[in-house]
Amino acid sequence: MPVFPPLEHVTASEELSATLMYHVERPVLNEVKRNEIFMLIVISLLFFRCSSEKAKSVVFGFLPILTWLPSYPLKQYLFGDIVSGISAGVMQLPQGLAYAMLAAVPPVFGLYSSFYPVLLYTFFGTSKHISIGTFAVISLMIGGVAVREAPDSMFAVNGTNASQIVDFEARDARRVEVVVAMTTLVGIIQFVLGLLRFGFLAIYLTEPLVRGFTTAAAVHVSVSQIKYLLGVHTARFNGPLSVVYVTFLIARITNVVTLIIGLVCTVFLYFIKDLNERFKKKLPIPIPGEIIVIVSTGISYGMVMSENYGVEVVGKIPTGLLPPKIPDFSVFPSLFPDAFAIAVVGFSIAISLAKIFALKHGYSVDGNQELIALGLCNFMSSFFHTFAVTASMSRSLVQESTGGHTEIAGLLASLLVLLVVVAIGFVFQPLPTTVLAAIIMVNLLGMFKQMKDIPALWRTSKIELAIWLVSFFASVLLGLDYGLVVAMGFAILTVIYRTQCPKNALLGQIPDTGLYFDVDEYEEAEECSGIKIFQSNTSIYFANSDLYVSALKAKVRPNA
């Protein structure tokens, strides 16, 4: 075995210097010790190499833009993304203003919510086609919380009777604080759920449940907008039977001029929407009906409708962006249940749309990263006075159909909104609110078409039909928050029911084939001599084991 002798000392030549001396000491290294050191060096190198690769994977996973932007094909994608971004941005503007009314905040905050989150999603999102921004269902849920936490009665100037005067400026300022705090909490919840890999939560919000819930939300939104469409001023109600209360309250004398403007805009928008649907293959881009009706701003300004005819208008829209502000954390405890519901519903809507487009165009989306992306969009944007956002069905369809290929389209849409906020936001000040109500009502048509699910589910699955109906009626009658809880509870009960009452069958062979079918449903299926083939379409566990044995005995020995 070779042994390396120790170097006790090395001395420099006396001719050079008698004072210079090198003295080195080290232990004797045998072969075993040398191999151990060599292995430590190899393991250390492998460790640092793996850590580097892992760090790179984490960074690319957290910032998906790094995976596709360096190889972005300008000639193939840029023109389509520009057209798509402009088209989506044109829709963002009026919808942002309109959905701010649903969120119970001044319209300009809808524009902020159409800029910051959309910009951030470009960097963190994994879907190439969904359009992030304001959405009717989420806005309505936020508005319900804002009205509950900052009702008109808190800002009454003269007493609390029916003719009280409300300090609208103070009320709106407080509602903005509540909404911003809510958005911060929603972002934190979504981000934490994403880090904990809870992207599978969307599985429990089944398609019938979501479609029934969003249809019910469309009913709530429609009822809430009737007062703007008719020019009627009523209190805003939330909770059980709120739809009934509002319906009775608006059955009064309306502002005729407001009603005419609203109906004309509604009919026109419906006509444009129908044209876009009929000729979508021939039109290079959809006709921007929502921007066209904004021309009514000029008519309203020229005829001074606000003063002469009592038509309610959008009002003051400050030019430029507001400085960042820390949210009011003191209201978090009272907002947490609502924030959790909004976080889950918002993610469910976004991931559903993302998966549809991903399947159509042949790429994949990461549910956990989408949770993180939405969480960051909501959390970071909330410091700039926004409310919670998610994907919009109508804008996503436009962004995809007009040639959008990547998240660059969303980036361009956000820049268009920024241009309006910074430069020409004041143009929208004389815009009648009834026009915004008409925009909202027409955009809800797609949700109301989900009523067609009822006959389809009746033919395919009675249980899923029951989930759809319970989700719809519970959300309409009890409110969106309680309705969602009831719907999810009922959906879980159906899972238990399916395990308790599975479909059981005895299988028989189709002659001259290797196929086996239920002998009760197929006359040609013949049981094998001396063999019983029993099939149950559920897993066996403690809660259904006795039922499984009973069903097996009933099928195998029916007369026993």
Automatic annotation (TrEMBL):
Gene name tied to this protein: LOC107690535
One Pfam family cited in the UniProt record for this chain: Sulfate_transp
Topology relative to the membrane: Multi-pass membrane protein
Domain of life: Eukaryota
Organism: Sinocyclocheilus anshuiensis
One cellular-component annotation, GO: membrane
All residue ranges annotated as the SLC26A/SulP transporter domain in the record: 78-470
Keywords: Membrane, Transmembrane, Transmembrane helix
Regions crossing the membrane: 97-124, 130-147, 178-205, 243-271, 283-304, 339-359, 371-391, 411-444, 465-497
Cellular compartment(s): Membrane
Protein name listed in UniProt: Prestin-like
An example molecular function term from Gene Ontology annotations: secondary active sulfate transmembrane transporter activity
